[in-house]
Each structure stands twice: as C-alpha cells, then as structure tokens.
Amino acid sequence: MKARTLMKLLGAVLALTLFVAACGDGDDDSDATTDVTAAATPTVAEPAAGDDEPDATDAAPAEPDDSAPATTAAPAETTDEPEPEPWRIAYLSASSANTFLLASVGEMQRLADENNIELVEFDAQFNAELQTTQLQDAIASSQYDGIILVALNGPGLVPDVEAALASGLQVVLFNQIVGDDLSTNEPQVDGIAASVMAPPVVTGERAGRLTVQACEGLDPCRVVYLFGIRGFPLDVALRQGFDSAVAGHANIDVVAEGEGMYLGPEGGINAMQDILQAQPDFDVVVGADQSLQGVELVLTDEGKLDGVALIGLGGSSPAIEGVRDGRWFATVYYAPASEGRLAMEAMIAALSDGSITGGIDPNANFIDEGLVTSANVDQFTAEWDG
Fold first, then answer.
1. Sign (positive or negative) of CA dihedral 153, 154, 155, 160
2. By the 8 A CB rule, do 319 and 289 touch?
C-alpha cells in the first residue's frame, strides 16, 4: 500500500473517532471504545510544505530489522589506569605510647601514604603475651601482605614468625631481635626480609664505655643502673653489654638498680625517689632517655644534679640539649625515625620483588659510634622528642 493511501485511511479513522467521542450517548461502552481506539492510533506527522509525499519513516515507526546486528554506543576511551589495590601491612608495635616508636611509625606512615600502603597498627602495651596473640591473629586473618614487628619476646616469637613466612607474608623486624643471639642484627629466621636495629649488646657496651669515661678519677665510682623493663630481652642484652664494658674497671660499682618503663619521665621519677631512700650517694646514673628526664627533675629538687653524671640511651632532644648544656654527661645516640624509614623501605622492596635486605644498623656510620658527649654534641641532631 502506498504511503499516500495509508495516510488518507488513517486520517479517516481519526476523524471518525473524534466524531464518535463528541456525539457519544453516555453508554458505558463508549469510554472503553474511545480509549482503545486512541491507544491504537499512531500520531501522523503533517507533510512538510512542498513535499508531494511524506517520507515513509515519517508516517510510522520502522519495523526492526532482525537480520541486522544490534549496535551500542562505544564507550569513551580513557587513558587512566585503575589504581591497584593497596598493600596491607600489619605493624605490631611494642607500645603505641612509647615516644621512641612514635618517631618510627611517623616515618613508616609517610612512606605508606606515598606508596599506596595501608598500615594497620597493633598496640601490645609492652605485654609479650598480648603481642603473641596479635601476631597469630594477623596471620590467621589472611588480610595482610606483610608484617613489621617490634618483638617483645624475641626467642618466643620464632615459631610465629616462621608461620607468618610460611603463609606467604613478608616480615621485617626493627628495634628488637627475633631469636636468641642479641649481639647481632642479622635475621635469625630464614626468610625474614630485613632486621633494622643497632644490636642491643653493642648498645649496652657503648653505654658502659661512657660510664668508664664518667668514672675516671673516681674510686669508688658508684653507679645507679636503670632498666627499661627488667627481664625484657632488650634490657637483658643491654645490661650484658654494659657489664662486659665495665668489668675490667675495679673502681666501678653498681650500687643500685631501678626500672623506668620506657614511657616518660614519671618512671624515672618513681625509680629515683625509691633509690634515694636506700642509696642517697652515687656518682653516675645510666638509663633510657625517657627515665633520665625524670631522674634529672628529682636530682635537681634534691640539689644533687651537679654531683651526678647522667648517661642516657636514646639521643633524644632532651638528651642532646642536656649534654650541650652540661646537665647530662652523655647519651648513646639512636635514630628511631631512620629505623622506621629503613624498615618500611625494606618492606616495600620485599613486596615489590622479594628482595632480602638482611641486617641494617642505623648507628653504623654515626660519628664516634653514636657516643654523644660535650666534645661532639653539635654534630648530632635528635630524631625524637624523648
């Protein structure tokens, strides 16, 4: 049928429909008829002026051609690559409140942010059993690509570190050893990617050498020794190194011991107050920088500071300032921010291509092996606030 004939027929149907609607007699059937007819009636476009005959496509929608393949608009091209899933690293801290480790984790987090890494911190609160549970839970969760560990129980964590490695996790140690030999920073479990620390026995020896200097000309030289946490593997190793350094000097006598807890001046204040009641006279105090800040406060109040040489472990801002001002005799330098940076760099290398970095001593290239005294203090810059 030609398009012109079709249009005439459709026009007639439309006119008849309008007439019936206008002249309806009110019967119920009229509405239904009108609706059905209207629904079935296509809209007819008026021909454009000058057209003898409208285009067939104007008269009615074209029937779909089943033989032609369906087409869709091509998506816009983009050069942006999807961002890869971040690596997830479990950081098992000995204590999130420890000011030394705060400097370390600050550098780790900086590198994590720059390298699409999610760093999740676990706070062991200086509780070795809690840390063991946290490590086991992190392994069992299968949510992590690697573990950075500050071990509270180096010998006891060996089986769990082996389990982490067997599950495919990369493991980096810093600040503390996993194993029995506390005189080396070389990994003692096969597969550990890196072990970043100054060997604690060596650090203790350095503190002992400073004590020998402070005791020159004094006989006896009475020494107060403050552990961080008595029995903690780190402290066992530090004391072992200290004892080996002072053993050949008969004038040196350790007359009192205490415990500062590595958490700030308060531990040193409490320890020093207790010691003064039992042993009011001494010449040297050796301990972690955090504890010695409290010791300095107590000795200042008691009017004893000028007669006592303070030897710190840490190289913190208060220690560096104390040595420079002559209030402290010396401190053994530590670089916690550097430790955190080196640990995260080793982890990134291990995750990227399986690199094994091995033992790293951040103190190895320090001036005078990191023994900070009045003679060289201006050549050291503290990496943490104590």
1. positive
2. yes
Residue-wise pLDDT tens digits, 202-236: 999 999 999 999 999 999 999 999 999 998 888 99
In the block, tokens 């105090």 appear at: 285
Gyration radius (Cα) of the chain, Å: 40
Per-residue pLDDT tens digits for 162-199: 999 999 999 999 999 999 998 999 999 999 999 999 89
Cα within 13 Å of Cα(318), Cβ side: 21
User: How far, CA to CA in Å, does 66 sit from each of 59, 63, 70, 73, 358?
Assistant: 21, 9, 9, 19, 68
What does pTM read for this prediction?
0.75
Q: Which of 230, 217, 338 minimizes the C-alpha distance to 288? A: 230
CB 246 within 8 A of CB 211: yes
What is the helix (H) or strand (E) element at residue 258, kind and residue range?
A: strand 252-259
Residue type at 340 in one-letter notation: G
**Cβ neighbours around 338 below 10 Å, total:** 17
Chain mean pLDDT for the chain = 84
What is the spatial order of strands in the sheet that 194-196 belongs to? 117-123, 87-93, 146-149, 170-174, 194-196, 358-360
Question: What are the b/e assignments for 216-244, b being 16+ CB within 10 Å?
Answer: eeeeebbbbbbbbbeebbbbbbbbbbbee
**Residue 11 CA: distances (Å) to CA of 18, 20, 44, 55, 330:** 11, 14, 8, 17, 108
Nearest Cα to 314, choosing from 223, 222, 238? 238
Burial 11-34 (b: 16+ CB within 10 A, else e): eeebeebeeeeeeeeeeeeeeeee
Quote the tokens at residue 59: 């008269």
Pairing outcome for strands 170-174 and 194-196: parallel
93 and 99 Cβ atoms separated by less than 8 Å: no
